[in-house]
Amino acid sequence: MPAPTVATLNLAEPVIAAALGVAVLGEPVTAGGVVGALLVLAGLGVLALPAPGRRAEKEPVSAG
Questions:
Q1: What is the per-residue DSSP string for 3-63?
Q2: Cα(2)–Cα(59) distance, rounded to whole angstroms?
Q3: Which of 28, 29, 36, 55 is the one with CA 20 to 30 A from 63?
Q4: Could you read off the pLDDT of 7-53 as tens digits, one per residue?
């Protein structure tokens, strides 16, 4: 994976940690936590969109 893609996916770590806290440890779900998770996911969605006027980059072909 290209470095920018990995960096963008790394931004989802707090949401994943919170979800695991709820699923594994039984942490309570709060309205603020849900809103925060939705904002982070919305931001990641915006980052995943191609920039206006720019073509999507092709991944390099690896030799071998």
A1: HHHHHHHHTTHHHHHHHHHHHHH-PPP-HHHHHHHHHHHHHHHHHHSPPTT-PPPPPPPPP
A2: 8
A3: 55
A4: 888 989 999 999 999 999 999 999 999 999 999 999 999 888 887 87
Structure tokens at 31: 């309205």
CA dist., res. 8 & res. 1, Å (int): 11
What single-letter amino acid sits at 54? R
Report how far residue 59's alpha carbon sits from residue 1's, in angstroms, rounded to the nearest whole number: 8
Q: Alpha-carbon torsion 25, 31, 34, 36, what sign?
A: negative
User: Which residue type is seen at 4?
Assistant: P
Other C-beta atoms lying within 10 Å of the C-beta of residue 44? 14
